[in-house]
Amino acid sequence: MASDDKASGNPTAAEPGRDFIRDIVKADLDAGRVAQVVTRFPPEPNGYLHIGHAKSICLNFGIAEEFGGRCHLRFDDTNPVKEEQEYIDAIERDVRWLGFDWGQHLYYASDYFERLYGWAEDLIRKGQAYVDDQSQDEIRANRGTLTEPGKNSPFRDRTVDENLDLFRRMRAGEFPNGARVLRAKADMSSGNINLRDPVLYRILNAPHPRTGTTWKIYPSYDFAHGQSDAIEGITHSICTLEFEDHRPLYDWFIANLDVPSTPHQYEMARLNLTYTLLSKRVLTELVRGGHVGGWDDPRMPTIAGLRRRGVPAEAIRDFIKRIGVAKANSVVDAGMFEFTVREALNKTALRRMAVLRPLKVVIENYPEGQSEELDAVNHPDDAAAGSRKIKFSRELYIEQEDFMEVPPKKFFRLSPGTEVRLRYAYFIKCTGVVKNAAGEVTELRCTYDPATKGGNAPDGRKVKATMHWVSAAHSIPAEVRIYNPLFNRPDPSGAENFAADLNPNSLELLTGARLEPAAADAKIETPVQFERQGYFCLDRDTTAEKLVFNRTIGLRDSFAKDVAKDVAKEKAGG
Ligand code: ATP
Ligand code: MG
To answer: Residue 268 Cα, ligand 2 centroid: separation in angstroms?
Structure first.
């Protein structure tokens, strides 16, 4: 789907608003199997949310909204070693920013620790759980493989009383970390490894961000997750495909425990994107290893990073709608995300002129010390956005790449003797170049035609290029940060090897950009379009001394790319 869409340059939703999960929800409501749909988004607070989570958020909150139900935000905070309050706060902020609201339905798995503990004792009393003294390695070794059944633990047949006593002493903190675990007595020969006596509780002498030092044992994710859903009356428990094999275990718990409701789990494909790794573990390592500036570095695929970069929440929601919800994993083209962002920004972003890599131009026949105001429209498709005045004067800046002293055949911009249009201003012609000792062009000498004010010649003569520019004296300096993909391969290696695939040029720092004054009025996180360059927003690193802009995204401009290729070819061929 993604590649077809890319080829046509026009991604559209497979079937907007319809997918297999929504079909199930609708059927359950129609048949009266559920009275009200209740979903949840269950993040573990061990990192910031990324765009993959946005898929789950949009789906869970979206379904609740569309079918008149509700969606809970539940923190699956069962592992205190990795979880932090900072992540809880960031997750709440990001879900809200994405446009969703859980009302009073904010929950924590840690709120259920006492009930989960009670259920664990119930299993022990029913002979369905036991305390195992094997080490972690022994447990792993005895679990068997896909082709071989597991081996029963020598501690599997402990009496109920012994198990209860040991489990209570685990809770009381009598044993060191890792000394014992509580396991379900399920089926060591099951074809599904998840059913081979999974661990329910671990000893962990670690303070929890919410329960403090109350607990010395913590439930496993598998033991907490389904029961938390049952406590909250979740009707449709949506997760990603890697949990499909866990479903029989969740159902085993639900069937064997006295839980208040029976949630059903549905699995969908994870979102994967080219040039991107959506794994909290890798993202954590990027932050800890200093490969990026933080969780909200604009190169990160995190919600916080995308937001800081200038991506509107609306574009993320649109993108998620377009990719749909499938039952088979796939990789979505990052270009499709960019298309959606560009489309959203094209509608809303005000147009401004900014020169990212300035080359000075002196208009020799324009009087020294003089300037004039010209009209520039703020948005070509939105008259209501109005217009602004921009200053023209004798000394200007244009983009370095808009000039070539010896132009190849298809280069239509400025070169000695050619005439071009300066947007909203005049036709200018290049009459000479000034070079430094190294032979590099440092300044252009040009003339302008006063009869072409506003950008049209009364004699009807045409030019082949319209270029952006700023007045040297009236423009404002800024730092501009250009972001390129964080990884230089469409399929970066996950896990340990991601560092080798990091793109060393993911951040280009342009320190000498010049902006028209109106561009400096931009708001943080709200991009404007720098004409011919792309969409840019003010970064919060901006100070009274220095304006800092992020490039949210470049403009689609395949023509410019072709020219660049031609230029490169001609250069290579001498
Ligand atoms: P990671 O694998 O990056 O560590 P996770 O799945 O462990 O992510 P959780 O905090 O447990 O992170 O995720 C919360 C919810 O978001 C889960 O229901 C999970 O299935 C869903 N989710 C996580 N990553 C994606 C993704 N790439 N696409 C769709 N849903 C996702
Ligand atoms: Mg998870």
So the answer is: 14
Is the C-alpha dihedral spanning 97, 331, 276, 555 positive or negative? negative
Domains in the chain (CATH in brackets) are: 20-268 (3.40.50.620), 280-350+479-561 (1.10.1160.10), 354-468 (2.40.240.10)
Instruction: Kindly give the distance from the C-alpha atom of residue 571 to the centroid of ligand 2, in angstroms, as a whole number.
Output: 51
Using a pLDDT cut of 70, give the percent of the chain over it: 94
Query: How many Cα atoms within 13 Å fall on the side-chain side of residue 58?
Result: 23
| Mean pLDDT, rounded, for 13-31 | 84
Cα angle: 16, vertex 17, 18; to 5 degrees: 95
Percentage with pLDDT > 90 across the chain: 91
Specify whether the CB–CB gap between 238 and 223 falls below 8 A. Answer: no
Distance separating alpha carbons of residues 556 and 414, to the nearest angstrom: 22
- SS3 at position 184: strand
Mean pLDDT in residue range 439-458: 96
Predicted confidence at residue 1, as pLDDT, reads 35
Report residue 505: phi and psi, to 5°: -105, 30
Is residue 442 within 8 A of residue 432, CB to CB? The reply is no
Please give the residue that has the higher pLDDT: either 7 or 84: 84
For 297, the token pair is 């570095």
Please tell me the distance between residue 443's alpha carbon and the centre of ligand 1 in angstroms.
54
Q: What pLDDT, on the 0 to 100 scale, is given for residue 17?
A: 65
| pLDDT at residue 16 greater than cutoff 90 | no
Instruction: State the chain's maximal CA–CA distance in angstroms.
Output: 102
Average pLDDT, the chain: 93
Six token digits for residue 7 = 């080829």
Q: Is the pLDDT of residue 458 over 80?
A: yes
Q: Does pLDDT of 254 surpass 50?
A: yes
CA nearest 296: which of 284, 285, 305, 306? Answer: 305
Angstrom distance (rounded) from CA 420 to CA 413: 7
Q: Which residues line ligand 1 (CB under 6 A)?
A: 42-44, 52-53, 55-56, 239-240, 270-271, 278-281
Catalytic residue among 26, 115, 151, 270: 270
For the chain, the helix, strand and coil percentages under 3-state DSSP, each to the nearest 5: 35, 25, 45
Other beta carbons less than 10 A from residue 481's beta carbon = 19
Q: Which two tokens stand for residue 52?
A: 């993959």
CA 506/CA 150 separation, integer angstroms: 47
Contact 389, 375 (CB under 8 A): yes
Q: What is the pLDDT of residues 303-338, one digit of tens each?
A: 999 999 999 999 999 999 999 999 999 999 999 999
Q: Is-above-0.85 flag for pTM?
A: yes
- Taking the C-alpha atoms of residue 113 and residue 219, their distance in angstroms, rounded to an integer, is 8
Of 518, 442, 445, nearest in space to 475 by CA: 518
What are the two backbone dihedrals, phi and then psi, of residue 406, each rounded to the nearest 5 degrees?
Answer: -120, 90
Residues present in the chain in total: 574
